[in-house]
Amino acid sequence: MSRFAPEALFPHADDIPEAWRLGAPVEQREYLVDGELRRWDGPLATVRSPIFLKGERGEEQVILGSTPLLDADAALQALDAAVRAYDNGQGAWPNLRVGERIHHVEAFLARMRERRHEVVRLLMWEIGKNLKDSEKEFDRTCDYMVDTINALKELDRRSSRFELEQGTLGQIRRVPLGVALCMGPYNYPLNETFTTLIPALIMGNTVVFKPAKFGVLLMRPLLEAFRDSFPAGVINIIYGRGRETVSALMASGKVDVFAFIGTNKGASDLKKLHPRPHRLRAALGLDAKNPGIVLPQVDLDNAVNEAVTGALSFNGQRCTALKILFVHEDVLEPFLARFSAKLAALKPGMPWEDGVALTPLPEPGKVDYLATLLQDATAKGAQVVNDGGGQSRESFFYPALLCPVSPDMRIYQEEQFGPLVPVVPYRDVQTAIDYVLDSDYGQQLSIFGNDPAEVGRLVDAFANQVGRININAQCQRGPDTFPFNGRKNSAEGTLSVHDALRTFSIRTLVATRFQEDNKTLISEIIRNRESSFISTDYIF
Ligand code: G3H
């Protein structure tokens, strides 16, 4: 029996624990440009929670507040501030010594940690992420910043030495690229955004940052920390519709790095607006349809456990989620039975409730979209295997395990980004191999099996197709020191603590012929500290 009782899902305001209650809706008019919080007197966007509360008029969607709907002109002013702060690479920020830039980021991190409770509360209310995962997102982001600082120190230490090759003396350092535009996704509005924003800043770029479409208000508690921790114009935070604001920024040709997590269509449309394509570097995290392949010789309990969390943590709203499962016919029945049983044990509810796994979805229209995919699949022969699968209440959709799924169904190709779990039974593993070869996406996949010959063969079949092959484990981004990328339409570039520092910088080399007069010149520059680039300073 599923634990979903639709009428009991949404609470009364009084049922909410004190610590997580909301105050009055927040009318945010501030945005950060050129080191000051400017006030926007134009139109605002209403911020709705995926959470409904029971009241006198039935269940009503909670309004959390509103945020500025900046126009193109206001967005361009933010860009101009970033352009001025970079000043063609002559600005104070891009020329600051690495150790000093690190101090600014450390100051910001200390201020950010003070706002943990507010940010976690807003993560729950704005995107419906459960308490445990919201806390994890916050803490993982702080850890990422600490690791980034340490990785940069290490990088800088290596660059503090000279190299002598074939009579040429050289010093190689990484320098910033210019003005970065950073945009994150709504499912990890803090973490994924900061995994580009912080490396961009710490490498000496100046930044315009636009928060995701949901998870916007949670940046409000950090605005003052951003303002106070960085010099004017180094970080600018804008709000509004992407079409109006971001399009204008890209069309200006003044953006040098475009960090974006979203759809490949959105990324292509925006990149095309840039008038100087080869001067734009992009770091993109895009669509994915990661398959899980369950082989006949398998530890089925482990496969089911991993597939359930892989497909359904944060209601399947992860780019790395398992979005289609290929299950060998020999183990299909027990797999479906155990999956359904596990799924039935997942607790639906409000994000702050103890042990809650399934929560309301933030995207308007998402429940209808999932219902359409489900109807399309059932009309073409799939069945909902689990009890209660596909039931909904307002913004909440109870997960549906669908089987047998076939290529003519929309769910076979479309990225559902939600709690639908399609299962394709197969007899010949070539079915799963062909799916991956033909797919437009190539982020990750999971292989569940324990026959060394078969697992080994599949790894080789997939090694040139996806960015990561997980064996007997769900797909995931972490640990953050591992490379995170994708093939085909799933990504551009590679991110990790180590890679992001490289993505937001380029190597510049100072070289000279190794002879007496040059040796003296370089020594004098170093001794008299005439240059920050030519220096043997060592950060401890
Ligand atoms: O939405 C995509 C995220 O990068 C996934 O990260 O695998 O840690 O949930 P995760």
Lateral arrangement of strands in the main beta sheet: 17-20-21-14-13-23-24
Number of domains: 2
Named at the architecture level, the CATH assignment of the largest domain is: 3-Layer(aba) Sandwich
What's the CATH topology name of the largest domain?
Aldehyde Dehydrogenase, Chain A, domain 1
Question: Could you give me the name of the CATH homologous superfamily of the largest domain?
Answer: Aldehyde Dehydrogenase, Chain A, domain 1
Uncertain parts: none
Residues in β-strands, percent: 15-25%
Helix/strand structural class: alpha/beta
InterPro entries: Ald_DH/histidinol_DH, Ald_DH_C, Ald_DH_CS_CYS, Ald_DH_N, Aldehyde_DH_dom, Aldehyde_DH_Superfamily
Domain Aldehyde dehydrogenase: 63-505
GO molecular function: oxidoreductase activity, acting on the aldehyde or oxo group of donors, NAD or NADP as acceptor
Protein name: Glyceraldehyde-3-phosphate dehydrogenase
What would you note in describing this structure?
By secondary structure, the protein is of the alpha/beta class. It has two domains: about 70-285, Aldehyde Dehydrogenase, Chain A, domain 1, CATH 3.40.605; about 290-480, Aldehyde Dehydrogenase, Chain A, domain 2, CATH 3.40.309.10. It has 18 helices and 27 strands. The strands form eight sheets. The protein has a seven-stranded mixed sheet with strand order 17-20-21-14-13-23-24, with helices on both faces. A six-stranded mixed sheet has the order 10-9-8-11-12-26, sandwiched between helices. A three-stranded mixed sheet has the order 1-5-4. β2 (about 30-35) and β3 (about 35-40) form a beta hairpin. The relative contact order is 0.14. The model has no long low-confidence stretch (mean pLDDT about 95). The structure holds glyceraldehyde-3-phosphate. The site of glyceraldehyde-3-phosphate has 9 residues, from loops.
